[in-house]
Amino acid sequence: MRVVVVGAGVIGLSTALCIHQRYHSDLQPLDMKVYADRFTPHTTTDVAAGLIQPYVSPPDDPREMDWNQQTFDYLLSQIHSPSADKMGLALISGYNLFREAVPDPVWKDLVLGFRKLTPRELDMFPDYGYGWFNTSLILDGKTYLKWLTERLTERGVQFFLRKVASLEEVARGGVDVIINCTGVWAGALQPDPLLQPGRGQVIRVEAPWMKHFIITHDPERGIYKTPYIIPGMRDSSVWVLASGLRAPRSG
Ligand SMILES: Cc1cc2nc3c(=O)[nH]c(=O)nc-3n(C[C@H](O)[C@H](O)[C@H](O)COP(=O)(O)OP(=O)(O)OC[C@H]3O[C@@H](n4cnc5c(N)ncnc54)[C@H](O)[C@@H]3O)c2cc1C
Question: I need a labelling partner for 221 at 20 to 30 A (CA). Which of 17, 58, 98, 140 fits?
Fold first, then answer.
């Protein structure tokens, strides 16, 4: 079986590893290649803060909850393993803040220790009247890509620096399965009007005193239109969303 994964961000490399782990003994030989025009440290994944928190609004596709749960449970199962440091994986706690009371999110039992903020906690955030506290996971993109690359290399997966012009072009090379993991560029290979890029202005600042994430919300304005702060996993910097622009969810 010849499999090509197009894209070497977190989606491409984790997909490649999942498929290899699951099928390499059944599909022999399993010939897997990764094609990408950018590898770590030049992908979007490399600049992500890596906080794992699903969107506050319920997913359009109910399967998303299952995918989120499986991802969270898999990563949580690794948290005390010797690999956690090399994966860039850690527990992190923090706040979600709202001006007014909102329903609990569908992911409240997916994360750890979800609860509503107490009046004393809310006193720390005078502009907000309601909020949640929970523990989640942070997965440093750059570190995780390095770890995934090592695992795939051990398994004999080959990497090619190559810009793919079309999926047909890859198919003509004699491939049984092609997986499109090209992130925000995916629509160039397989147009999907429901997939829309978002844009925001995220800055990284040195702030070693920040130990918790703080995500503010304005349900009427939509996600990522209000500031957030996410502490970095590897150093004392934090990611700050100063302002955000994002196309409305479609569908
Ligand atoms: C500043 C910032 C902070 C973020 N913080 C978080 C966070 O805290 N938590 C979170 O969950 N998400 C966060 N995100 C979002 C997260 O980074 C992305 O959702 C994720 O990295 C997407 O991974 P991906 O593998 O789909 O895409 P990418 O990492 O963009 O990888 C796409 C791959 O496809 C390749 N490719 C594309 N087109 C072609 C082509 N035609 N031919 C060959 N190769 C191609 C690229 O070279 C690349 O290798 C953040 C994003 C940004 C920008």
Answer: 140
- Quote the pLDDT of residue 199: 73
CA 39/CA 9 separation, integer angstroms: 7
Task: List the structure tokens of 8.
Answer: 């070497």
Distances (CA, A) of 156 to 144, 151, 159, 200: 18, 9, 10, 38
Determine which residue's CA is closest to atom 6 belonging to ligand 1.
Answer: 48
Listed residue (103, 94, 98, 93) closest to 127, CA to CA: 98
> What is the model's pLDDT at position 243?
55
Q: Which of 142, 159, 182, 245 most suits a substitution to test ligand 1, by most atoms within 8 Å of the C-beta?
A: 182
Q: What is the pTM of this model?
A: 0.91
Dist. CA 57–CA 27, nearest whole Å: 39
Sign of CA dihedral 20, 24, 27, 30: positive
Residue 246 confidence (pLDDT): 42
Measured in whole angstroms, the distance separating CA 9 from the mean position of its chain's CA atoms is 10
What's the 103 CA to ligand 1 centre distance in angstroms?
30
Do 5 and 181 meet the contact criterion of CB atoms below 8 Å apart?
A: yes
Q: Which residues line ligand 1 (CB under 6 A)?
A: 6-12, 35-38, 43-45, 47-51, 163-164, 181-185, 188-189, 202, 230, 239
Is residue 35 within 8 A of residue 211, CB to CB? The reply is: no
- CA 118–ligand 1 middle distance (angstroms): 36
Q: CA-to-CA distance for 81 and 247, rounded, in angstroms? A: 39
- How far apart, in whole angstroms, are the C-alpha atoms of residue 94 and residue 124? 13
pLDDT at 65 over 70: yes
